[in-house]
């Protein structure tokens, strides 16, 4: 009653050749020489056809490329009027190579996420199934992860719960398609060594009195880690409102506040903080950096000195002196102290108070003279 195309849904290596046939039911009263073939909707040249008999038309394809669609390429036999008589799906690809770059991380010790890359380009042409498997190293039963997602050339899986701490896991990925299978190297890891946290919560940035070149950043340690014995390393980055370049402050150690100095007066800054849990339950390794917190914006006060009024005989000269002094001070601070350490800030404040006093006194005298 119907037309038969054979072979049906063959699976072949890239570079293979194929001869397919379209066999008509004699009751149709059609002749094979009136038929034509298409591949993915494109008509194949009649030079590739062979009329085997009045009921059979063949087509020969050489040096096949990988399938353009993972659901298989459509090889279709048509009647003279374009009517579809029958078809077959061609699966052309390569067997998988062993998956690579398997890395895993745990958010707040509660779960585990892993990602990997395909070992070669061949398996992208035909559907390749990945299975992430894991077991406790010495006495575990093999389990399989269930929540998969895939992006461009990258695959991942999420294990939401029921993970053991203090015992290493063996984790690996098996890749399978219609042409073969391959297994990644086994990764051995302890959940406690791959912990990352949520970003620090409640990041606030505020001014330091009327100091025009400083902001203070405060944040809360990630709430999910309250019940875990750990220390944290924090990192801050900040940028000018109209810049894309971030400056990173690395040495915040485990404080939950930090003062940024040497900023531009009257300028909006965006600030972000991230956390790295260290020594969870006595693990020797540092964890994995969290994502950055949402950017928080704040502006430094405008500098009155830099826009000082007409009473000052040479504002530009005072301005450049001030900048020079600042430069000298920061040079000194860099030699003697680091980023967020308290020492430099205390000294800096004393120095600034003195500087502001001396300027105020000088301006006062000038104003008294002029009045």
Automatic annotation (TrEMBL):
Membrane topology listed for this record: Single-pass type I membrane protein
Any one Gene Ontology molecular-function term assigned to this protein's record: cytokine receptor activity
GO biological process, any: negative regulation of neuron apoptotic process
Localisation: Membrane; Secreted
Disordered, as annotated region: 299-320
InterPro entries attached to this UniProt entry: FN3_dom, FN3_sf, Growth/epo_recpt_lig-bind, Ig-like_dom_sf, Ig-like_fold, IgC2-like_lig-bd
Gene3D superfamilies: Immunoglobulins (2.60.40.10)
UniProt keyword annotation of Repeat present: yes
Domain annotation Fibronectin type-III: ranges: 98-194, 199-303
Keyword Membrane part of the UniProt annotation: yes
Record keywords, A-Z: Disulfide bond, Glycoprotein, Immunoglobulin domain, Membrane, Phosphoprotein, Receptor, Repeat, Secreted, Signal, Transmembrane, Transmembrane helix
Protein origin, superkingdom: Eukaryota
Similarity annotation: Belongs to the type I cytokine receptor family. Type 3 subfamily.
Stated name of the protein: Cytokine receptor-like factor 1
Native organism: Echeneis naucrates
Lineage: Eukaryota, Metazoa, Chordata, Craniata, Vertebrata
């Amino acid at each position: 009653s119907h037309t038969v195309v054979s072979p049906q849904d063959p699976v072949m290596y890239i570079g293979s050749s194929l001869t397919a046939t379209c066999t008509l039911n004699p009751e149709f009263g059609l002749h094979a020489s009136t038929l034509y073939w298409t591949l993915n909707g494109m008509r194949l040249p009649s030079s590739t056809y062979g009329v085997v008999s009045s009921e059979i038309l063949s087509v020969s394809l050489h040096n096949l490329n990988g399938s353009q669609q993972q659901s298989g390429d459509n090889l279709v036999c048509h009647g003279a009027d374009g009517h579809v008589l029958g078809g077959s799906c061609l699966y052309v690809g390569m067997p998988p190579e062993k998956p690579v770059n398997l890395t895993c991380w745990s958010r707040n010790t509660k779960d585990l996420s892993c990602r990997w890359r395909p070992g070669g380009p061949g398996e992208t042409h035909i559907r390749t199934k990945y299975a992430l498997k894991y077991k406790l190293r010495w006495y575990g039963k093999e389990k399989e992860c269930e929540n998969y997602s895939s992006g461009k050339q990258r695959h991942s899986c999420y294990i939401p719960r029921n993970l053991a701490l203090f015992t290493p896991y063996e984790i690996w990925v098996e890749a399978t398609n219609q042409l073969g299978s391959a297994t990644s190297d086994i990764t051995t890891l302890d959940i406690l060594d791959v912990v990352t946290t949520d970003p620090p919560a409640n990041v606030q940035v505020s001014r330091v009195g009327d100091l025009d070149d400083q902001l203070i950043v405060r944040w809360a340690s990630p709430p999910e880690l309250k019940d875990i014995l750990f220390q944290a390393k924090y990192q801050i980055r900040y940028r000018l409102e109209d810049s894309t370049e971030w400056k990173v402050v690395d040495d915040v150690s485990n404080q939950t506040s930090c003062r940024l100095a040497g900023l531009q007066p009257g300028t909006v800054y965006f600030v972000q903080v991230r956390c790295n849990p260290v020594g969870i339950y006595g693990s020797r390794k540092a964890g994995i950096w969290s994502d950055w917190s949402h950017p928080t914006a704040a502006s430094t006060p405008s500098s009155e000195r830099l826009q000082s009024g007409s009473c000052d005989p040479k504002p530009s000269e005072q301005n450049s002196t001030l900048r020079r002094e600042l430069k000298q001070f920061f040079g000194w601070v860099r030699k003697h102290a680091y980023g967020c350490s308290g020492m430099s800030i205390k000294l800096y404040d004393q120095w600034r108070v003195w500087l502001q006093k001396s300027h105020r006194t000088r301006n006062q005298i000038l104003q008294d003279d002029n009045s």
